[in-house]
Specification:
two-stranded antiparallel sheet, 13 helices, alpha/beta, 10 strands
C-alpha cells in the first residue's frame, strides 16, 4: 500500500494507458469486423465469371434486383424501331432532268450530222464507244422519246426512290425494315411537313446505280432504242439527293433513353439464381450480391459472429502478453 501511495504518478499513467489500450483494441475489433463480415457470406459461393457453377444457388429470401440485360434489350429494340427520316432536295432532281435533256440534245445534233463511225470522236469523252454507236443509229423521231424516258427515269430513281451518298450505313441500322418518312424541300428551299411513304425505303446509292441501272432501265423500258446510251447519260447527271436525318435519329435515341426506367426482376425463396453446371456471368454475381445485401438478418448474425471471433482472438493475444510478455504491458516508454 505504501508503494502505491509513493508512486501516484505511475498509477495514473498505467490507468490511462490501459484505457487507451482497451479503446484501441475495441476500434481494431470494430473495423476488422466491418472488413471481414461480407467475406464470410461472399466466399461461401466461391463463384467467378465464366466458370460452371459447382452447385445450384437459390434465393434465400424475397428480393428484387435490377435487370440490366433486359433493360438493354428493350433499349436496343426501341432504337431499332426508330422510324427513319430522310431529307431530300428536289432541286437536285430538277437540275438532273435539265442536264439530261441538254446532253441528249447535244448527242442528237452530233448523230444527225451523219451515221458514219468517223464521227465517234465528236462525242463527249465520258460516253463510251458502244453508247456512241447506239446514238448514231437512233432515228430522229425517237430522240423525243429518249428525252421523255430520261426525265421519267430520273424522277423514278430520285423522287420515288431517292439516292443516298452511301447506303451501307442504312443497312447497318436496318432502316430498310421500317416504313420511311421523308422531309421534302421545295425548289425554293423551304422544308415541307414530313410525309409518309408507302413501304420501306429503297436503299440505293451511286455504287448500286453503276451496277444495276442498265438492267433496271431494260426492265422499265423494254423497247427503248438505246439503253446503254441513256444509262451513260443518267449516270452522268444523277447525284445523291437525299441524306439520312442524323439529328432526328439522335434526338429519338435521347428521348428513348430519358423514358427508360430501371427494370427489376423479383425472386422468391427457392427460385434458382444459378443452376448446377450453368456458366456464371456477371448478372448471376450481381443477383447474389443483391441477395446478400438484402438479407439483413443473416448479415447481422454473421457480423455478431465475426465480432465475437475477432474479440476472442484479441483477448487471447492480450492474455498471451500478460502471461508471457508482462514486461511489455508495464513498460511506460512506448
Amino acid at each position: 500500500a505504501a508503494d502505491m501511495v509513493d508512486l501516484p504518478g505511475i498509477q495514473i499513467h498505467l490507468r490511462r494507458r490501459r484505457v487507451l489500450f482497451l479503446l484501441a483494441g475495441f476500434v481494431f475489433v470494430f473495423i476488422a469486423t466491418l472488413l471481414v463480415t461480407p467475406l464470410f457470406d461472399l466466399t461461401r459461393y466461391q463463384l467467378t465469371v465464366g466458370q460452371p457453377s459447382p452447385r445450384k444457388v437459390t434465393a434465400r429470401l424475397k428480393f428484387k434486383v435490377e435487370d440490366r440485360e433486359q433493360a438493354n434489350d428493350i433499349r436496343t429494340a426501341h432504337i431499332r424501331s426508330i422510324v427513319p427520316r430522310f431529307i431530300r432536295d428536289l432541286k437536285i432532281e430538277k437540275a438532273a432532268q435539265q442536264e439530261a435533256v441538254h446532253h441528249l440534245e447535244l448527242l442528237r445534233k452530233i448523230s444527225l450530222r451523219g451515221a458514219s463511225s468517223d464521227r465517234l470522236h465528236e462525242f463527249p469523252a465520258w460516253l463510251d464507244e458502244s453508247a456512241a454507236q447506239e446514238a448514231l443509229k437512233i432515228p430522229e423521231k425517237d430522240w423525243g422519246q429518249m428525252q421523255k424516258a430520261a426525265q421519267t427515269l430520273i424522277h423514278e430513281f430520285m423522287a420515288e426512290k431517292g439516292i443516298l451518298e452511301d447506303a451501307r450505313f442504312a443497312m447497318d441500322l436496318d432502316l430498310h425494315r421500317y416504313t420511311r418518312y421523308e422531309i421534302l424541300r421545295t425548289t425554293e428551299g423551304e422544308t415541307q411537313s414530313s410525309q409518309p411513304v408507302r413501304g420501306p425505303p429503297d436503299l440505293i446509292d451511286m455504287r448500286w446505280l453503276a451496277a444495276n441501272l442498265e438492267g433496271s432501265i431494260a426492265a422499265i423500258y423494254s423497247n427503248l432504242p438505246a439503253p446503254r446510251l441513256i444509262t451513260a447519260v443518267l449516270l452522268r447527271v444523277m447525284k445523291p439527293n437525299q441524306i439520312f436525318d442524323y439529328g432526328h435519329y439522335r434526338m429519338e435515341i435521347a428521348r428513348i433513353e430519358s423514358d427508360l426506367h430501371p427494370i427489376y426482376k423479383e425472386y422468391s425463396p427457392g427460385d434458382p439464381i444459378v443452376r448446377e453446371g450453368q456458366k456464371v456471368n456477371e448478372t448471376h454475381l450481381a443477383t447474389i450480391r443483391q441477395m446478400q445485401k438484402d438479407d439483413r438478418t443473416r448479415l447481422m448474425v454473421t457480423g455478431v459472429s465475426a465480432f465475437a471471433l475477432i474479440s476472442l482472438f484479441t483477448l487471447l493475444m492480450i492474455q498471451y502478453l500478460r502471461v508471457y510478455q508482462s514486461d511489455r504491458l508495464t513498460d511506460t516508454d512506448w
